[in-house]
Every structure is written in structure tokens, then in C-alpha cells.
Amino acid sequence: MNHKDVERLFFEHFKSLKHKKLPDVALVPPEHDTSSLFINSGMQPLKPFFMGLQKAPAGRLFNNQKCVRTGDIDDVGDNKHLTFFFMLGNWSVGDYSVEQAAQFAYDLLVKKYAMNKNKLWATVFKGDKKLGLGKDVVMENAWPKIGIPKERIFLADSEEVFWVSGATGPCGPTSEIHYDFGASKGCGKKNCNPTCDCGRFMEIWNPCVQISYNRDAKGKLTPLKLKSIDAGAGFARIVGVLQGTNDVFITTIFKPLIQQIEKLSGKSYTHNKKAMRIVADHVRAATFIAGERVTPGKKDQGYVLRRLIRRMVRYSKQLGIDRAGIKQLVRFVIDDFKKDYPYLQKNGKQIAGVIGSEYDNFNRTLEKGNRLLAKLMQITKGKTLRGIDVFHLYDTYGFPMELTREIAAEKRYNVDEKGYEKEFAKHREVSKKGQSKKFVSGLADHSEQVIKYHTANHLLLAALQKVLGPKVTQKGSNLTAERLRFDFNWPEKMTPEQLKKTEDWVNKWIKQDTKVTMCEMSVADAKKSGATGAFEHKYGAKVKVYTIGAVSKEMCLGPHVANTSTLGHLRIIKEKSSSAGVRRIKAVLD
Q: How many Cβ atoms are within 10 Å of 566's Cβ, its own excluded?
């Protein structure tokens, strides 16, 4: 079944059930909605209806809404994650029951799409004492009557099936439909279930979000007067199941674009899945975002667009696709969607110009490394680049080893990767003894974006000490160009209020254009000055002390940004347990 037929049948199904179709809205939310940088779900524009702030155009609604989720950028490259996607949605604004919503979804999947009913599982909210909510017995009893037997119902905890719209706002328990691709596709464990991320199960529809409560900053749930239902289905995932694959990139949605990437690169998807998936997703996302006249920048939507373009460029280079090739891919996306989204055609030149300009800017940052690598090849005896020389390119100039390897291969050179890893390990050990001035544990590299996350890491620690108390210390961190991961000592799960305060505190200091300064001094003098250090055994006789305004002063090997204004906007996307007594925060800079 072609993806166009999937959409058509969805529309016909809900029209027959007396639902009113809503128009697709812009990706950039209106000014009054500050909950996210982009529309990230079909229900987001409907929040005023659910909260009783505005009257809905009808009690039954549906649409297919384009969305962007920046928190998934890290995950794009696997078989199912996308930053830009379409969400099929249907809603009841004080109209029908949760059982009816589940029945509507099941009937479409089984009767209209002819999906194998024996492959369908359901997750049900098992209750949460902290939230003061019991098990969802309504849906536990409803699914067997609808068509999913008791043995394929899994009781899941609130982290899996309690839906929230943000730190505050409408929320409630949900029940999801998952498709089982079979034990051969999974981990093989006896307890494998729909919440396992091994690949056996794929969530295809969330048809029963019960928008029953409003959550305040303290985490308190207050029942809403108007009981509503939010149902959302990943368009690409349903199409994948109906076309017999758990890889959304080989469905009819993406296949023409993937084939174009194969043509331009001269490479096959089979052997270049990650790079082609990233290029395909990011070129679609960048085209649609730029189509709304967003331009690359240092903050907000502009910074997300910059991240997407630069990541796309990096992987397009791996595939051998140049600037002209990127331009062709942008044109391909515009042509594919111009009928339904005519503004893409109207803004076509502007879109191509924005993406091309950012390509050039990013390309220039790589030019110096390319020149140095070319010189290294000239002076190298034989056809193998020494590991120590390749490491020097990385350590001194931030030139990634993987890029060195790719360029070297094009020139028929090899890289002594074992030698590189040896130098990397040696330098890391030297850093631990305080003798290194450059290498920083926890940083993936010294790229511009990783350095930004390093500074954000310091602000996050200061914020946690402000919100939770001065005894909070760093227990570990991992920084990449895509996100920061921060471990700290704390005995329990942070509340929504604590997370919001932490996030707001960091962003307050980012917006204040706070200067970051550095000076070198002895460890003793650093301590006297009030500087702290999470891992003091790393530092030698002389240490660098980085100060961020009046809020953070730490002994650190660096490097850092010169001013917090370059960071953009920090958003906490996950908080969970790392180990006993240690919590982990994952955050991104938008």
C-alpha cells in the first residue's frame, strides 16, 4: 500500500466517523506558544481547546500535521527516528470515550489497512503511587473486547505511558498500540515486551491519551473539567508496517529520495545506511524550516537549522555529495511536496540560497584541516599516515579522524588507526596526571558545538547547586556536538518544578550575555579564590580557572566559549537514574 493511500484511508475513516479536518499549521509556533521551538506534535496547536481556553471548531477533529523534534537529532541514523515527520492525529474535545478512541484506531488498522491483528500488542498504564493514580483498568478491560487479547497487553510504568505536554500543562495516562515484527527481530530474551528497544516492537499508534489533568510547576495534578482524547500515529511507521519493513527509509515515503542520494553518491543504501538516513531526514527538515523563512543563526530556530545543515553536510561529504548535489536534493524535496505545500516552490530560491550559504560557511571551517592533511600526505613516506600525525590534526586543529580517514582513502592513503588510538589513550592518561593543556575528558572533540556544550555543562552544574543545594557535585559527563550528558549525586528523581527551575536558571544567564574569562594560577590559589573542581586529580601545579560571570568558577582544562550568548537555548530532554545515588540529565542546545 502506497503512503498516499495510507493517508487517504485515514482521512476517509475519520470523516466517516464525523470528524472535522483541521488545516496543517506552520512549523514555527505562534508567539504566544513558547513551549517549543517547533510544532512537535499534531496536538500542540490544540492545547487551548483542551484547557478550555478556546472553543474547538468541533468535538471531533483530525489531520496530518508536519512536525519537527530536535531532541531526536542524535538518534537519526537508525531505522525509525526522524527530526522531520508527519503525525496522523484524531482528537475528541469532550466528545467520545477512550474506549471508542481505541476502537476507532483498531478498526482502521485491521479492517481498512488489513494489518495482521495477531501482530498487535497494547501497553496499559499500571498506575503510579507518586502521582496518586491507580491502574488503568478501563483500557485493560477494553482491549480484549476490541480485539487485542490479555496475553498481548503489557502493563507499563508512567515513564512509558503517562503523557505530558511539557514540564507543566495538560497530561494523562495513555495506552499504545505496538506492532510485533517477531522474536527473530529482537533480543531473544523471555521478558522482551513492547517497551524493549531491541527492534522487535515498534509503537505505531498512541490512540488513547486521556487528557484528564493539568500539571503545575510543583508536579501537582488537577483534574480538568473537559475530558479529551489525543490520538497520534507516526505516519512513516504505519506505512513501514504495511509495506513489510521496520525501516522507514525504504518505504515509499523515502525511497525516491534515497534513490536520488544513491544516484548522486554512486553508493548503495545497503552499505551506507546511517549516512544516507541522516542526509535524507535532514535535507527534508532543513528545506521545510528554511521554507518558513528561518535562517541559520546562533539562537532558537536558526540554530536548529544550522545544526541540521552542518550535520547533513558532514555526512553528505562521507557519501561524496558536493554542494551541487545538496542543491539537487533540496530541489528534489521541493518538487516532491510542492503540490501540498506550495510555499516551498514559492520560496525555492531563498531555500536553496540559505542552505547553500551555510554549506559554504561550514566548508570553510574544514579548509585549514584539508590543507594540513594534504601537506601531511606530501611528506609521508609510503601510503600510510602515522597515527601520531593524524592525532595531532585532531588534537591541535579539531580535524576529526573519520574525516582524515575518508580524505586519505580518496587519495589512496591508509591511516594507522591503531597508532591513532594509542596516541589518544596516551594523551588521555597524561591529562589525568595534569600534564596536558588541551585534552578534556568528556569532550568528543574540540569543535565549536562541543565547546558550547562544555560551557553549558558548567552552567548546568551551577544551576543544580542553586536548585538542589550546594552539595550537588559532578559525577561524570559526556559531551558531543549533538548533546550533553551530565551525571550528578542526587538520591531521587527530580520533580518537574526542579527541572523547570534548573532549565530557566541556565537560560537566564545565557540571555544575559555573560562573559567567560580564564586565568592560570596554582591549585592553592584557585581554591582560595573559591574555584571548585570535580576531578582534582587531573590538575597539575598550574591550573586554568574559568569564570562565568558571578555564577560559576571552576578549575578546568577548557576550552570554553567567550560569551554565553552564543549558546542559544538549553533544553533538558531527559532526567533518569544513572546508578545508585546518581542521576543523569541529557540536554540539548537549540
A: 18
The residue whose grid cell reads 613516506 is 381
Domain 3-246 carries which CATH code? 3.30.930.10
Amino acid at 89: G
Per-residue burial over 11-47, b = 16 or more CB atoms within 10 Å of its CB, e = otherwise: bebbeeeebeebebeebbbeeeeeebbbbbbbbbbbb
Instruction: Domain 448-589: give its CATH superfamily.
Output: Threonyl-trna Synthetase; Chain A, domain 2 (3.30.980.10)
From first to last of its 590 residues, the chain has per-residue pLDDT tens of 999 999 999 999 999 999 999 999 999 888 777 778 899 888 888 888 888 888 999 999 999 999 999 877 768 888 889 999 999 999 999 999 999 999 999 999 999 999 999 999 999 999 999 899 999 999 999 999 999 999 999 999 998 999 886 667 788 999 999 999 999 988 999 899 999 988 899 999 999 999 899 888 888 899 988 889 999 999 999 999 999 998 999 999 999 999 999 999 999 999 999 999 999 999 999 999 999 989 887 678 988 898 899 889 989 998 999 999 999 999 999 999 999 999 999 999 999 999 998 898 778 766 777 788 899 999 998 999 999 999 888 776 656 676 788 678 878 999 999 999 988 887 666 443 332 233 344 454 456 788 889 999 999 999 999 999 988 988 888 888 778 999 999 988 999 899 999 999 999 999 888 899 998 888 888 888 888 875 444 555 678 899 999 899 988 877 888 889 889 899 998 999 887 788 999 999 87
Supply the pTM of this predicted model: 0.63
Which phi and psi angles does 222 have, rounded to 5°?
A: -120, 125
CB burial string 106-131: b at 16+ within 10 A, e below: bebbbeebebeeeebbbbbbbbbeeb
Query: 88 φ, ψ to 5°?
Result: -75, 130
d(CA 579, CA 587): 19
For residues 477 and 442, the answer to whether their CB atoms sit within 8 Å is yes
H or E element that contains 85:
strand 84-93
Region for 481 from its dihedrals, namely left if φ exceeds 0, alpha if ψ lies in -120 to 50, beta otherwise: alpha
Closest by CA to 124, choosing from 163, 162, 156, 172, is 156
| Distance in angstroms (rounded) separating the CA atoms of residues 374 and 212 | 63
Domain boundary assignment for the chain:
3-246, 255-365, 380-432, 448-589
Dmax over Cα atoms in the chain, in whole Å? 77
222 class by beta-carbon count within 10 Å (0-12 exposed, 13-18 middle, 19+ buried): exposed
